[in-house]
Design a protein that fits this description.
Elements (H helix, E strand, L loop, with lengths): L1 E7 L10 E8 L3 E6 L4 E3 L2 E2 L8 E10 L2 E8 L9
Antiparallel strand pairs: 1-4, 1-7, 2-3, 2-6, 3-4, 3-5, 6-7
Length: about 80
């Protein structure tokens, strides 16, 4: 399973266990992902680590001094696992 972290700006938009879909965005040298409908956004992801799945499940939502962070799991291998 591949885990990814997303930044959420407001509390209460997502909860653990919820199924999600993501939309892929393209930058000149990276991809980024948004949980639909614009609930949270990932960091920039290098081309070699492109997310293949478009559906996943929220595993955790945490709040820290920088804001709200959502962890989601996708049914595909983790590209960083072999490092």
């Amino acid at each position: 399973m591949r885990k990814m972290e997303f930044k959420m700006e407001r509390p209460g938009l997502l909860e653990a266990g919820r199924k999600i879909t993501v939309t892929e965005g393209l930058l000149p040298s990276n991809y980024y992902y948004v949980i639909d409908p614009a609930l949270a956004m990932s960091a920039n992801i290098p081309f070699r680590n492109r997310l293949k799945s478009r559906e996943g499940r929220v595993t955790d939502v945490i709040e820290n001094d920088r804001g709200f962070y959502v962890t989601a799991e996708f049914d595909e291998p983790d590209p960083d696992r072999n490092k």
